[in-house]
Structures are given as structure tokens and as C-alpha cells.
Amino acid sequence: NARWPAEAVKTDGLTKSDLDLALQTWLQHVQRRHFSKDMAIITEPVKYTGKLNQLQPFVDVDDGLLRVGGRLAQSAELDDGARHPIILPSGERQVAKLILDVHKKTGHPGPETTLANLRLQYWLLGGRTEVKRQLRKCSECYRLRAQPFVQTVAPLPERRVTYEYAWRDVG
């Protein structure tokens, strides 16, 4: 871009930190669009009683993302993504792409396995329904699920089904 100084322009490609920052920015954008009122109420010291109440949500101070609270907070065996997954809405186009990406990366498993792999980092509202809806759109799974074509057998001609003595027309 000509507007940027030459030292600010990278030419060596994207790094992992660039991709992580882009993902975090995208997640913040999706959450602000769907949960802006909830996030404002959660950050205040009043008791939260919104639609996400059962998830005991909190806003992470490190990345500003809305995450699931709960009883796994003290688990030392789980990483932060599994302990406090990021809350995502269903019905969002980018979330659908995320579901299909996890589905393809894990080898096109069924909806339960895809949802389990997705929940290692994200908590999708209405997750099972949304995952099933997106997996019906997977072209490779659709092709593998196809039923084989069964050809219908033609009826036999009348000569073949009428009762006659054997060897009647021979010789």
C-alpha cells in the first residue's frame, strides 16, 4: 500500500501472531455485534440475569472476549480454551465457516465429534443444531452419504412365465 511507510509494510508473509490477532479481532467483532448488551451488563457489578446466565459468562481481561465461566476454572489439566471457551452465536456466516473448517480439519466426522472438537475452544449457542445444519452443507460428506443406484428389474416376457412341458419346442 502506498500510504504506509516502507518500514511498516511486511513482505515476508503472515506470521502466527498475525493470524492470532486477526482471529481475536474477528471474534471480538462477532461478539460485539451479538452480545454487546450482555457484555455491558456483565462488566458492571450488578447481578447478570440475561440469556447467557446459565453459562456464567465473564469478559476476559486479556483479550476482551466473552467466555464461559463455571466449575472447570480450577482444572489444571485443561488449557484455557477448554476451561473457558469463547461464546459464539449461531446463525452467523463466519461461525458456519469456522464449523466447516473444524469439520474438514478433523477428517469429516459426524456432528457429535465435530461439536466436541469445536468445544475445545468455542462454546456455540445452539451448537448441536447449528453443527448439524452446517454438516448437511458439506459437499464431501454429501457425496459419501449418497445411496447407490438400484436398478429396477424389468418384468419377464409372457413366454417365460407360462406353464409348459419341458422340451416342447425342441427338434
Describe the structure.
The chain is mainly alpha-helical. Helix content is 42%, strand content 6%. The protein contains seven helices and four strands; from the N terminus they run αββαβααβααα. The protein has a two-stranded antiparallel sheet. A two-stranded parallel ribbon has the order 3-4. A hairpin with a 6-residue loop joins β1 and β2. α4 crosses α5. The longest helix is centred in the first third of the chain and has 28 residues. It is elongated. The relative contact order is 0.09. The mean pLDDT is 85.
From the helix content, strand content and strand pairing, which structural class follows? mainly alpha
Rg measurement, Å: 28 Å
Secondary structure: helix percent:
40-55%
Which strand order spans the largest sheet, edge to edge or round the barrel? 1-2
The chain-level mean pLDDT equals: 85
Largest pleated sheet: 2 strands, antiparallel
Shape: elongated
Percentage of β-strand residues: 5-15%
Instruction: Please give the oligomerization state of what you see.
Output: single chain
The number of strands is 4
Low-confidence stretches: none
- The helix/strand order is HEEHEHHEHHH
Number of helices: 7
Q: What is the terminal separation in angstroms?
A: 94 Å
